[in-house]
From TrEMBL, chain A:
InterPro entries linked: Cyt_b/b6_N, Cytb/b6-like_sf, Di-haem_cyt_TM
Taxonomic classification: Bacteria, Bacillati, Actinomycetota, Actinomycetes, Micrococcales
Region entry Disordered, spans: 528-553
Basic and acidic residues composition-biased segments: 528-539
Domain named Cytochrome b/b6 N-terminal region profile: residues: 15-241
UniProt main location, coarse: membrane
Keywords linked to the UniProt accession: Cell membrane, Electron transport, Heme, Iron, Membrane, Metal-binding, Respiratory chain, Translocase, Transmembrane, Transmembrane helix, Transport
Gene: qcrB
Protein's UniProt name: Cytochrome bc1 complex cytochrome b subunit
Topological category with respect to the lipid bilayer: Multi-pass membrane protein
Cited SUPFAM superfamilies: Transmembrane di-heme cytochromes (SSF81342)
GO molecular function, one term: quinol-cytochrome-c reductase activity
TrEMBL record, chain B:
Protein name: Cytochrome bc1 complex cytochrome c subunit
Pfam annotation, one family: Cytochrom_C
Annotated residues for binding of heme c 2: 143, 146-147
Domain of life according to the entry: Bacteria
Membrane topology value: Multi-pass membrane protein
Entry comment on modification after translation: Binds 2 heme c groups covalently per subunit.
Organism annotation: Sediminivirga luteola
Signal sequence, renumbered to the chain: 1-19
Transmembrane segments: 228-247
UniProtKB/TrEMBL annotation, chain C:
Gene Ontology cellular-component terms listed: plasma membrane
TM regions (residue ranges): 45-66, 81-101, 145-165
Protein name as catalogued: Cytochrome bc1 complex Rieske iron-sulfur subunit
Domain of life: Bacteria
Membrane-protein topology: Multi-pass membrane protein
Annotated Rieske domain residues: 231-322
Keywords annotated in UniProt: 2Fe-2S, Cell membrane, Disulfide bond, Electron transport, Iron, Iron-sulfur, Membrane, Metal-binding, Oxidoreductase, Respiratory chain, Transmembrane, Transmembrane helix, Transport
Length: 553, 250, 341
């Protein structure tokens, strides 16, 4: 290329030429420089996940320079008085060294931990955004699967890190993991002995978790993030249903310069937030817990938040769920936590395909659903969130009990009840709210916004002035996908297969309750009607389309 | 008032000088004036006898206090747990109803009924003389499962709880270990020697007075508080930033 | 590049019969209209970048000036100032860049067309052709012997990568059934960690209402003391014999109302250490399993199933509390082979 272009003269030009002749930089800039990213706050949540992961990698790398992942015993002689002379592992000792003696060590450690908590939280809320807006639909199903993998890996990264300091809290966490592993039928005892290099706690577990924590898991996360981002480039970003946005375009800001400046600036803001949290708020003060010792335990022994729901299941499940078949134990009271965690991941992975199958919808979707416009999906999502929250809260039942002066036992009974009924209530309530919002949208599109101004007409009738929507605002309310109930269909032989019967049932469950979007004819009729009043006025009582409820005059 | 207490403590302990040689703070022989005991009995009859019986022999509503010793009375009345405000799963700490002199008189009266643990000697209450590191190990083994590793408190069964230990005086901590108030087990001088109890006091003193190196402690409640904080504050701030960032400028 | 961008046309795709009205008209910002406001934002952005530099200086100065590790106050001061410096350094750059982008950079929305994700018909045809050619040239379809043996070889090849993990640890053997407790092993007080000189216990040291955390005196005898402690930790409680509801077969496992139970929860192994001396309940702080000490530590609430194993105790000729034997039942969480012995 440089052979055909004139020799650059400026320094920048020379540098650009150097880069282009070695890696084809001009093609990259041409390809990516003007890529369009729609601008909406909820589209930045994935960035938060990415940025907090980068920050965690940076701070974690620094920590590895000073942390000794070893369980050899020594006596502490550092500045923390309540542990002086106490026997502890090298892992714990070096964590204390990082915290107390290394300049900036405590800050970096706290940034690593706050960053990790934020990372998993951001991944979770990003996935909720993707779910509730239907962004997982074709062609993005595979990227959703990558996201599910990243979620599971973020839990693994978090838990292996939580266990490393070898303090009393993390040691008891490992002990619980050991108990869960031992509950696995047939092979549990062997897996436990292999993982711990013999009996719990042994002297190997910290270095083994360390290898997983700093090598395998981050490598897998980085690989999946790369795939995730390539998919984003291939698919281009989704966008909200707004005037000007269609299934065939992307409307937003170009990467260079605006999005790069905003996104790049946002990286620094997330970094600043984590630094600020770490400057002022103490996290995981490992020195409080003392070295791991299998005999003591602290009240309020809990995992980090993202494992909390599994711990909650362990608390909620009653003991009778453990049973014996010819003397062989099946500890369902413990295994249920594993089954639910795996089941949730599988359920998430399957959902896009399930929903497409139920709705017989194989189209590409680049314009998002507003959550209200997919009432059943939204209701299922909220039901899941409530279910998750119940399990998560279950892990802090003891703290809630103390805080609200309640009985610990009653808390667990309440959680057992909510475990089953919380999601059902949430489903019903959410679905009704969604349908109500859809009806409201319909009303607003038909008759305009309520202004709160009351007029008295010459013949004495009071009406509220409604302000008609401009076409740009109205678009959002009328232009949405609204699948209908498709009963089970017979195949070419005239038979209805079992799978198709089920699909029909699910379709009924999903789409039977439905508020139809306004057709163009309905909208035009309403506008003509509104025009008739001359002042863009309307009163609820004059509603003629049968959707509204007549108000008493 | 503090002087009066010191004087009283001196009086209580002069008769039990042998305690220092046997390394026991549970001096059974206590010398208090007969007047104190008489005053204490009056207070007892007026304020405690309804539940504990006219002669502290106990009733359906309260346990017998014969043999519980001055330490138990000093703890229960000194921390405001007794007299009980209302029946519930557990008596809560509240502002004491009696002043220190009256508390001491009540203690003297109950102690006069039968031998029991005495109010501990100052020697065993001074954190400066204890070993906080040894105390930390003992605290984690014997206390942390209920009171949390830094004494933030925790839940017990059916509405009972282990209270927070911050702001509890050294004397009351000692007396609680010694007498096992409510559902707390007793730690006699064999399971935790007076020196070990002092080590625990030294540990609590150290962690309660030290500056938290990392910043605000969020209640020292562990990962639950941290998780709530990152969701409400951390993620809340992040969402605020994203909204600002993607909003159009005016 | 410019071919990808085009102004939006309003009729690209109708939805529910409605015509997309297209992007609303661009509204100019204050900075687009008033040059003095534009200059003010320019100064503001520069101000944020200067703040960042000050933050960096604060970080470096604090890093050099404050040595943590001398006192808790210095640790706190160091952490706060370093963190504040880093926060300002990062915040200045972040806010500056975003204020710049929002107020001074072009804010006209740009539209890009989406293209089909799949290849063109031609691409597909060529791809099919390439794969066909590869099949032909390798002859994989024509030579089933090679194909099948390759598949078998590939299927077997990972096995060594699985089997090497056998070396991760020893086989369980009977380790989960045995602890250091044995006939005549004396009970020693657990003072935290692994004590150098275990302090032994006499029966009269345990009084009603008290609880003693106990380990075997020979805690150093195992390969690794913490592994042994993880199985052998015991709680010793003395209960008025009238309140103790003992199984006649186990009546001689206690001594004068003193009972010893494993401290390791039969649920997932947390130390069950919360003893309520009035209710005689033991509560696990991790998952709230509750055991009734008066009734051989049967589970009365929570997720555990099996009672805590009891350690039979008595006193030896010197008056020390000793174990009569090892635990008759395995301690800790349920495991698959638990009933094989």
């Amino acid at each position: 290329m440089s052979t055909t272009t004139p020799e650059p003269t400026t320094a920048v030009g020379k540098a650009a030429d150097w880069a282009d002749t070695r890696m084809g930089a001009s093609k990259l800039v041409r390809e990516f420089g003007r890529k369009i990213f729609p601008s909406h706050w909820s589209f930045m949540l994935g960035e938060v996940s990415l940025y907090s992961f980068i920050i965690v990698v940076l701070t974690g790398t620094y920590l590895t320079f000073f942390f000794y992942p070893a369980m050899g015993e020594l006596h502490y002689d550092g500045p923390y008085v309540p542990l002086q002379g106490v026997e502890m592992s090298q892992a714990y000792q070096s964590t204390l060294y990082i915290s107390f003696e290394l300049r900036g060590g405590l800050l970096i450690r706290q940034m690593h931990h706050w960053g990790a908590l934020l990372f998993v939280a951001a991944v979770s809320i990003h996935m909720l955004r993707v779910f509730f807006t239907g962004a997982f639909r074709r062609p993005r199903e595979l990227n959703w699967l990558v996201g599910v993998g990243l979620l599971a890996l973020s839990w693994a990264a978090g838990f292996t890190g939580y266990s490393l300091p070898d303090d009393l809290l993390s040691g008891n966490g490992l002990r619980i993991i050991d108990g869960i592993i031992k509950a696995i039928p047939l092979v549990g005892t062997y897996i436990s002995f292999f993982l711990f290099g013999g009996e719990f706690p042994g002297i190997d577990i910290i270095s083994r978790l360390y290898t997983l924590h700093i090598m395998i898991i981050p490598a897998a996360i980085i690989a999946l993030i790369a795939i995730h981002l390539i998919f984003v480039v291939v698919h281009k970003h989704t966008q909200w249903p707004q005037a000007g946005n269609t299934e065939r375009n992307v409307v937003g800001e170009p990467v260079l310069p605006t999005f790069a400046a905003k996104g790049g600036g946002f990286f620094f803001l997330v970094f600043a937030l984590i630094a600020g949290l770490s400057a002022f708020f103490q996290i995981n003060p490992v020195w409080n817990y003392g070295p791991y010792d299998p005999s003591p335990v602290s009240a309020g022994t809990q995992p980090d938040w993202y494992i909390g729901w599994a711990d909650g299941i362990l608390r909620i499940a009653p003991g009778w769920m453990e049973f014996y078949i010819f003397g062989w134990p099946i500890s369902m009271n413990i295994l249920v936590a594993v089954i639910i965690m795996v089941g949730v991941l599988v359920g998430m992975a399957v959902w896009p395909f399930f929903e497409a199958w139920v709705a017989k919808d194989n189209r590409e979707h680049h314009v998002l659903d507003r959550p209200r416009n997919a009432p059943t999906r939204t209701a299922v999502g909220v039901a899941f969130v409530v279910w998750y929250l119940v399990m998560w809260a279950g892990a802090s039942g003891d703290l809630i009990a103390v805080f609200f002066h309640m009985s610990l036992n009653d808390m667990i009974y309440i959680f057992r009840f909510l475990f089953f009924f919380g999601p059902i209530i949430a489903y019903i309530v959410t679905k009704r709210i969604c349908l109500g919002l859809q009806r409201k949208d319909r009303e607003v599109a038909l008759h305009g916004r309520e202004t709160g101004r009351i007029l008295r007409l010459p013949h004495g009738e009071f009406i509220e002035v409604h302000e008609p929507l401009d076409p740009h605002s109205a678009w959002r309310l009328v232009a949405f996908d609204s699948p209908e109930y498709v009963p089970a269909q017979a195949d070419e032989n005239g038979k209805i297969s079992t799978a198709e019967k089920w699909r029909g049932r699910f379709s009924k469950f999903f789409f039977e309750d439905r508020v139809a979007p306004l057709s163009k004819a309905e909208l035009e009729a309403a506008h003509a009607h509104n025009e008739g009043h001359g002042h863009h006025l309307d009163s609820e009582g004059n509603d003629q389309d049968g959707q509204g409820r007549p108000l008493p005059h | 008032m503090a002087l009066a207490v010191l004087l009283l403590l001196g009086l209580l302990l002069t008769g039990g000088a042998y305690a220092m040689f046997t390394n026991s703070a549970s001096a059974n022989a206590q010398q208090v004036s007969a007047q104190d005991i008489a005053e204490g009995e009056k207070l007892f009859v007026a304020n405690c006898a309804t539940c504990h019986g006219m002669n502290a022999e106990g009733s359906e509503n309260g346990p017998s206090l014969i043999g519980v010793g001055a330490a138990a009375v000093d703890f229960q009345v000194g921390t405001g747990r007794m007299p009980l405000q209302m029946h519930g799963p557990q008596a809560a700490r509240k502002a004491p109803q009696f002043n220190e002199e009256e508390t001491a008189q009540l203690a003297a009266y109950v102690a006069s009924l039968a031998p029991g643990p005495a109010i501990p000697d100052d020697e065993y209450l001074d954190p400066a003389l204890g070993d906080p590191a040894a105390g930390g190990g003992l605290f984690r083994t014997n206390c942390a499962m209920c009171h949390n590793v830094v004494g933030s408190g925790g839940a017990l069964t059916r509405g009972k709880y282990a209270p927070s230990l911050s702001g509890v005086s050294e004397r009351h901590i000692y007396e609680a270990m010694q007498t096992g108030p409510q559902n707390m087990p007793k730690f006699n001088d064999a399971s935790l020697t007076p020196e070990e109890k002092r080590d625990i006091i030294a540990y609590l003193d150290e962690i309660n007075t030290m500056t938290a190196p990392g910043g605000f402690k969020l209640g020292s409640l562990g990962p639950v508080a941290e998780g709530l904080f990152i969701w409400f504050f951390g993620l809340g701030a992040v969402i605020g930033l994203t909204v600002w960032l993607s909003a159009r400028a005016k | 590049m410019s071919s990808k961008e085009h102004t939006v046309t309003s009729d690209e795709l109708d939805v529910n019969g409605h015509t997309n009205p297209g992007l609303p008209e661009h509204k100019p910002r204050l900075t687009d209209t008033y040059p003095e406001i534009e200059r003010r934002f320019e100064r503001q952005v520069a101000g944020w970048f200067v703040l960042s530099m000050l933050g960096t200086v604060l970080f470096i100065v604090s890093f050099i000036a404050i040595e943590p590790g001398e006192s808790y106050d210095l640790m706190r001061l160091s952490n706060t100032l370093l963190g504040l410096g880093a926060t300002l350094a990062l915040l200045g750059i972040g806010v500056g860049a975003i204020v710049w982008a929002k107020n001074l950079m072009n804010d006209h929305e740009v539209t890009e067309s989406r293209h089909d994700i799949h290849g063109s018909e031609e691409d597909r045809a060529i791809a099919v052709e390439i794969i066909k050619q590869a099949k032909e040239e390798s002859g994989i379809a024509r030579r089933p012997l090679i194909r099948n043996t390759l598949i078998a070889a590939l299927a077997l090849a990972p096995l060594p990568a699985v089997i090497v993990f056998r070396e991760l640890g020893p086989l369980p053997g009977d380790k989960l059934f045995n602890t250091l407790w044995d006939q005549g092993v004396r009970l020693a007080i657990d003072t935290g960690g692994i004590p150098e000189n275990p302090r032994l216990l006499r029966a009269e040291d345990v009084t009603i209402g008290s609880v003693v955390h106990v380990i075997p005196e020979n805690i150093h005898d195992g390969d690794h003391a913490l592994d042994e402690k993880a199985k052998a930790a015991v709680l010793l409680m003395k209960i008025d014999p009238d309140e103790l509801n003992e199984d006649p077969e186990r009546a001689d496992w206690s001594y004068d109302g003193i009972v010893a139970y494993s401290k390791i929860c039969t649920h997932v192994g947390c130390p069950v250490a919360l003893y309520e001396h009035q209710t005689h309940h033991l509560l696990c702080p991790c998952h709230q399993s509750t055991f009734d000490v008066t009734d051989h530590c049967k589970v009365i609430f929570g997720p555990a199933k099996r009672p805590l194993p009891q350690l039979p105790i008595t006193v030896d000729s010197e008056g020390y509390l000793v174990a009569q034997s090892d635990f008759p039942d395995p301690v800790g969480p349920t495991f698959w082979e638990i009933n094989t012995r």
